[in-house]
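@channel sequence for tomorrow's demo:
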Amino acid sequence: MKLEILHRTHYAYAAPVRESYNELHLQPVSNEQQTVDSFLLKILPSTRLKHYHDFYSNCVHHFDLPEPHSTLAIESNLRVTTHKIAGLPLDARPAAVDQLKEAWNVGRCYDFIQASRYVDTSPEVWRLAVDAIGDERDIWQQSLRLMAFVHSHITYQSNSTQVHTHTREVLAQRRGVCQDFSHLMLSLCRSLKIPALYVSGYLATEIASATHAWMEVFIPGHGWQPLDPTHNCKPDETYVKIAVGRDYADVAPIRGSYKGTTERTMDVTVRIERLSG
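structure tokens (generated this afternoon):
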């Protein structure tokens, strides 16, 4: 599937601000699931863009605006081709829990069995996870049970949380957005020592085009397998991956600081178009 994606963020400040420094996670990765055909990033006021690859191999652009400015516009335009990847079948039983210790020493898996800024691995979360998996002993099947539990345990409600909402708050109010569904599933998986990472990206559907969040679990012998607890499904070619990390804090699309007024407005537009061919 060929997709063209426009992602525009516009800030307007009540008074001129200065010394603005920003980091961006907006450029998708190219891998076996997708090929980035083109990517263009524009900043207004104009400034010099630099980039580097972080600890998790994400592409991070950064820039600074030392001079006073009243608005800031960040726009990415990209074309990407996504590919059908079968992944593990839903009825597969590829790895018993006895193999988990093998996974902890693979790559950076150890990072993804720990608590993080928005992910909780408390005894209370562990109890929920144990109840959800029951007597299941296969890691993949455990992950699917945890996904089904998250999907049924909390209700999707737009604007019910903020980007800084912790898993504890999500469990208390039992509602949230895609980011919260992913954080809760990460918490459950990691409490059982199943390596699990956070994914940010886009989801193109017939009714909506939006940024989205899902997660991946590491299955020994089969690598990272994506799951979307918000929709209780395996991601397909309508998903575009941008970046991965321990949680949202590692992959925020835009993160920065500046000196000046805290009164500002932010307007975000995401438009995804399916192309022929």
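heads up for whoever presents: The first strand starts at residue 2 and ends at 24.
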